[in-house]
């Protein structure tokens, strides 16, 4: 005949209670746990001392619905004192304590699934401990399986984490070895570069006259071309100057044409300003005449003079143009008409808005002519000359890209130094990254190392929250808002992380996130909230937060029902354990 499994918890609980106390149940005061029954044993005279030792009363006063003891210990089974606790046996489920103030209050307290909190009979509370206990045992078994599975995964995480730290240390050593080697190469490259730069400077100083002569030969065509442009501009300037001089001398003053008068006034102002400009220019020319100008300075001087002359042409052009647009056409002033004809003849060849001739472009001198003039005897070998000829021919038929210009010894040294310097900087950055990872706290036994930079998302209403562990947290909707970067663990338990320095809230603090970790068989965000303005709370489950369950550990028997711990007390030898909500 099979035993009813629902009776097992009942039998176990009864047996446990009999073992824990020598006081028969009918002598144990109501509301007192079996393990505390001996505390209520009267002395030989039938008296009993309050548990705080403050008073001795008759044992008959226990649970007489009158509070005799200051600590309320004489009324564990009534609401007379209200400041102590009532023990619910809850046979078939877990025992529990409630405050005595909740006894016989007309409410069936869920902590007392056996209904003993309403013992006066005025409120009927059914005993549902068997049903509740069955569900609780199922839940404990579910949690136990998750913890066991999480423990196995965490063991793998730990193995990975320890291996990762070992690999990082090895990588750091290799990077430092490479850095020492590349530093030596960089130093040698720098020495070669310094030597070549010194030789180049020595060459530049010793060949200055020769190079200037070569540059002058190469720049001479450009200088002559610029001088021709200057001569053309001076000729046009003279034409406009004489035209305005003639206008000023011969216009009919009796007409009182305001447009003509404005042009004459503007011309007088121009002449006055020109006196100072010409004086400055003469002083500059005198100064430059005393100097041995280089070819580049000669070219620059011609370009500057051309620009200045064109600017004067533009000003005189505008004076006559404004007169043309406003003069009285009925006067037929010959001097005015003559000036307008000069303007009309010249206008098609002039860019009025740029002070430039229509058919004239700026002279462009090849950069290599200015920077490094080609000497008559460059010292190139036969191969260089032949290669140069081939390259020139290739460019003429559009395939010059196939023949790269050979690099000089200095250019090669510069490139070598640049490469070694870049490699040295890259190694330095890599070392900093590895050292940063080695210094990061990945939890006890490096259990969280495998989760570095792994990202998880959670949708809440119109928002999607993203968390990259040891990285950044974001809130996404129409825009991506930073909630902060990983800053630290909170406390020593490695179950809470802080992410700070997020986007500042409008009229508020910078956004931040607290991430609380709990045991789970998979990595997932299970809840998001905002307890305070712009301060977010993410609940995260992960195997890394589970405790390690050894193979030798005996699993808890779901049928063994532990006695509840009375609030404010810790049984001898008991250890506090943290239970995760799974």
TrEMBL record:
Keyword tags: Coiled coil, Disulfide bond, Endoplasmic reticulum, Signal
Coiled coil: 129-287, 410-437
Biased composition (Basic and acidic residues): 573-582
GO terms for biological process, alphabetical: N-glycan processing
Keyword Lipid metabolism tagged: no
PROSITE patterns named among the record's database cross-references: MRH
Signal peptide coordinates: 1-21
Pfam families from the UniProt entry: PRKCSH-like, PRKCSH_1
MRH domain: residues covered: 453-548
Residue span of region Disordered: 558-582
GO cellular component, one term: glucosidase II complex
Protein name listed in UniProt: Glucosidase 2 subunit beta
């Amino acid at each position: 005949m099979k035993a009813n499994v629902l009776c097992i918890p009942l039998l176990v609980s009864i047996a446990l209670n009999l073992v824990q106390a020598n006081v028969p149940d009918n002598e144990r005061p109501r509301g007192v746990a079996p393990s505390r029954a001996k505390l209520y044993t009267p002395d030989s005279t039938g008296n009993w001392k309050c548990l705080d030792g403050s008073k001795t009363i008759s044992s008959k006063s226990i649970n007489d619905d009158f509070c005799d003891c200051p600590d309320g210990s004489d009324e564990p089974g009534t609401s007379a004192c209200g400041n102590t606790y009532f023990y619910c046996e809850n046979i078939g489920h877990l025992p529990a304590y409630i405050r005595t103030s909740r006894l016989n209050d007309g409410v069936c307290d869920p902590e007392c699934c056996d209904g003993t909190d309403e013992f006066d009979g005025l409120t009927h509370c059914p005993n549902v401990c068997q049903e509740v206990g069955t569900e609780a045992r199922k839940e404990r078994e579910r949690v136990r399986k998750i913890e066991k599975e999480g423990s196995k995964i965490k063991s793998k995480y730990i193995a990975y984490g320890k291996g990762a730290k070992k690999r990082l240390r090895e990588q750091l050593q290799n990077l430092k070895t490479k850095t020492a080697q590349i530093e030596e190469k960089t130093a040698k490259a720098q020495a070669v570069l310094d030597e070549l730069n010194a030789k180049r400077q020595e060459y530049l100083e010793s060949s200055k006259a020769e190079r200037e002569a070569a540059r002058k030969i190469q720049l001479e065509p450009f200088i002559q071309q610029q001088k021709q442009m200057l001569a053309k501009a001076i000729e046009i300037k003279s034409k406009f100057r004489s035209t305005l001089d003639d206008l000023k001398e011969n216009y009919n003053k009796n007409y009182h044409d305001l447009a003509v008068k404005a042009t004459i006034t503007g011309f007088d102002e121009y002449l006055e300003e020109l006196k100072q400009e010409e004086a400055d220019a003469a002083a500059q020319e005198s100064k430059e005449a005393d100097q041995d100008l280089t070819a580049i300075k000669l070219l620059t001087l011609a370009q500057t003079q051309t620009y200045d002359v064109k600017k004067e042409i533009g000003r005189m052009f505008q004076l006559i143009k404004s007169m043309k647009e406003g003069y009285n056409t009925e006067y037929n002033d010959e001097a005015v008409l003559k000036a307008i004809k000069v303007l009309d003849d010249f206008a098609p060849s002039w860019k009025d808005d740029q002070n430039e001739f229509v058919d004239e472009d700026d002279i462009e001198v090849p950069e290599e002519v200015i920077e490094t003039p080609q000497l008559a005897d460059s010292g190139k070998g036969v191969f260089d000359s032949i290669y140069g000829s081939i390259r020139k021919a290739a460019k003429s038929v559009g395939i010059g890209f196939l023949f790269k210009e050979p690099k000089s010894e200095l250019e090669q040294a510069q490139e070598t130094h640049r490469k070694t310097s870049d490699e040295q900087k890259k190694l330095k950055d890599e070392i900093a990254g590895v050292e940063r990872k080695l210094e990061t706290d990945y939890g006890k036994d490096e259990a969280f190392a495998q989760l570095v930079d792994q990202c998880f998302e959670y949708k809440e209403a119109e928002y999607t929250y993203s968390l990259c562990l040891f990285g950044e947290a974001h809130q996404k909707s129409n825009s991506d808002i930073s909630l902060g970067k990983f800053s630290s663990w909170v406390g020593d338990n490695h179950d809470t992380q802080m992410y700070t320095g997020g986007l500042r809230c409008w009229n508020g603090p910078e956004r931040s996130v607290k991430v609380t970790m709990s045991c789970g068989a998979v990595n997932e965000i299970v809840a998001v909230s905002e307890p305070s303005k712009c301060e977010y709370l993410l609940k995260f489950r992960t195997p890394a937060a589970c405790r390690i369950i050894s193979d030798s550990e005996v699993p808890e028997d779901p049928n063994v029902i532990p006695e509840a711990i009375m609030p404010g007390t810790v049984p001898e030898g008991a250890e506090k354990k943290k239970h995760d909500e799974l």
